[in-house]
Amino acid sequence: LDARLTVHPSLQLGPIDRRLFGGFVEHLGRHIYDGIYEPAHPTAGADGFRRDVIDLVKELGVTCVRYPGGNFVSGLRWEDTVGPVESRPRRLDLAWHSTEPNTVGLHEFSAWLEQVGADLMLAVNLGTRGVQEALDLLEYANIPGGTELSDRRSKNGRGKPFDVRMWCLGNEMDGPWQLGHKNATDYGTLAAATARAMRQLDPAIQLVASGSSGRAMPTFGAWERGVLEESYDVVDYVSCHAYYAEKDGDAASFLASGVDMDRYIEDVISILDEVKTDKHSSKTVNISFDEWNVWYQDQYNDVRRVEIGDWPVAARLLEDRYNVTDAVVVGGLLISLLNHADRVTSASLAQLVNVIAPIMTEPGGPAWRQTTFHPFAQTAAVAHGHAMRVEIEASTLPTSAFGDVASVDAAASYDGERVAVFVVNRHLEDASRLTIDLSAFELNGNVMASGIWDDDRLAANTLEAPDRVKLRENSSVRWNGSTVTVDLPPVSWTVITV
Ligand code: AHR
């Protein structure tokens, strides 16, 4: 089967914000403890952080990390996380039925991020807390000195401010599972009041209002409208969250998850622009897709502890093992984000280490890349400059969830020198020959193609076989001076650069 697409230098969608390649770290399961932080590990530094994990996170290329939750943040007292470690309280974390020792807090995590080379995106608790506590944290983090909280930060070992630019106003407040869950008007009113207050303190920050926790939520749409009605003028972003999984063996629909993400983003853009019109506003609010990934949620229902006396530290929670198909879906989701780079200017792969993560670790043992590591790392490394508009001509495939979908989907970027094309072949059995028309560019013709595919679409990387699935060169790629041809195996992710 043949597919065809054209990339033209004048058809630019918008600059690719580096924040599109963000990650998410929550105090959840073995993400922090026995994940990034394991003082007894042979690679750990004096600060307790594993160097092998830092190296992998750097290789992944995350640019900005949302922290410290997630559901966790809706019960958090941020003051617990600073000051002398030995005086920090142990607390019950109601979100994940765990005990939080607070050994790693704001200072330690921020020092870890400096080693990783990524920015911090902080979430404030609007579940059990409100305007004052958000203001206190902002003062602690961003005011240079001379006030009680900024001086306390210096006393706690950090003279210069953390200077956090991007702040999430709570997390998934539409979800009945969320501590302090609210209706749209109540949350929108609180988010707007918090945003106004925070801006009075630091006018340069960027603020994210919590959108729906998924497009399938019964309140989706009404929630965004209700929240933005109250907060449009004082926020910069509304969030989207989406998790996908192969359900009941329906691989065709799963492989087309990018179609759902496209529709989700386009629905939210419509609502944002409707509210903008209603408010006669000249300001455009964008999307922060700050939780997205494959997540086999159903599989883990039995892992959540329910006994009153059982509150473990660092239990093995949400440790999904990803296969080749999952990696292709992650690639498809990256394509969807790139194809909306004009309005999605921030995104966070959820999450980073051990918890629905591209990186896994074993206590005292190795750290390794899951299959999903590769599409993210490749895209973060080469998608620079502008996202380009691409029109793809391809055969269609029937899916039960989304009707007929294109069998091949693609996005492209151009940084002034290099064109990069990101492609998935969603077909379960058939390869596809793709022709890319680049005749309008002056290119040096140094063409390369690599990606993820395998005879066994369920192959995965494990502790025993950590490199079972690796990036592969696609040797079928050809350049003829104006077009590229490449054969795309079934269920595959490919990046072509010229
Ligand atoms: O990423 C895991 C959880 O998914 C987060 O804590 C929450 O925000 C979402 O429901």
TrEMBL record:
Its EC number is 3.2.1.55. One of its GO terms (molecular function) is alpha-L-arabinofuranosidase activity. Residues 290-492 form the Alpha-L-arabinofuranosidase C-terminal domain. It catalyses: Hydrolysis of terminal non-reducing alpha-L-arabinofuranoside residues in alpha-L-arabinosides. The keyword Hydrolase applies. The keyword Hydrolase applies. GO terms for biological process: L-arabinose metabolic process; polysaccharide catabolic process. Keywords: Carbohydrate metabolism, Glycosidase, Hydrolase. PANTHER family: ALPHA-L-ARABINOFURANOSIDASE C (PTHR43576:SF3), ALPHA-L-ARABINOFURANOSIDASE C-RELATED (PTHR43576). Homohexamer; trimer of dimers. Belongs to the glycosyl hydrolase 51 family. This is non-reducing end alpha-L-arabinofuranosidase. The lineage of its organism: Bacteria, Bacillati, Actinomycetota, Actinomycetes, Micrococcales.
